Amino acid sequence: METYEVVVLSDAQADIENIANYIVDNYKNEELAFALIVELWAKIRTLDFMPDRYGIDEEPKLQKRSIRHIRHKQYTIYYFIEEENKKVKIVRVKHALQDLRKFFGLD
User: Fold this and answer.
1) For position 103, what pLDDT does the model report?
2) Where are the beta strands (DSSP E) in the chain?
3) How open is the CA angle 40-46-47, to the nearest 5 degrees?
4) Please, what are the domains in the chain?
5) Which of 22, 35, 16 is nearest to 90 (CA)?
6) What is the mean pLDDT of each run of 10 residues along the chain (107 residues)?
């Protein structure tokens, strides 16, 4: 069984923090924010095994970069695989209502 090292890049770390802050600021619910963040990290950790089981994104510019995605509730975790050194790099985590093109600066 081959495993991969999962690396969360700084933009994705900031995204997760922003998600938590948004929930606390707008819903005044620290428990909900904490629970969601725990769930997102758990989902991210599953990428250490068979990360290619999730598809490459349909957006052409993300396809060119071999960016894959995995969904959790209303959030999408974007990542790519470095096969040569067995790493999965998490690049962004976004809410379904965020505009993908603006989020990735694809305009």
Assistant:
1) 85
2) 5-8, 68-72, 75-82, 87-95
3) 105
4) 5-99 (3.30.2310.20)
5) 16
6) 94 97 96 97 98 95 96 97 97 94 84
Q: What is the pTM of this model?
A: 0.95
Say how many C-beta atoms besides its own lie within 10 A of residue 57's C-beta. Answer: 19
Query: Which tokens is 26 given?
Result: 């707008």
Query: What is the structure's pLDDT at 91?
Result: 97
Q: Helix axis angle, 10-27 relative to 30-45, nearest 10°?
A: 150
Amino acid type, 93: V
Q: Do 88 and 46 form a contact (C-beta atoms < 8 A)?
A: no
Q: Counting beta carbons within 10 angstroms of the beta carbon of residue 103, is it exposed (0 to 12), middle (13 to 18) or buried (19 or more)?
A: middle
Q: Which H/E stretch holds residue 46?
A: none
Rounded Cα–Cα distance for residues 52 and 33 (Å): 29
One-letter amino acid identity for 4?
Y
Around Cβ 51, how many Cβ atoms within 10 Å? 21
pLDDT of residue 104: 87
Q: How far apart are CA 26 and CA 55, in angstroms?
A: 33
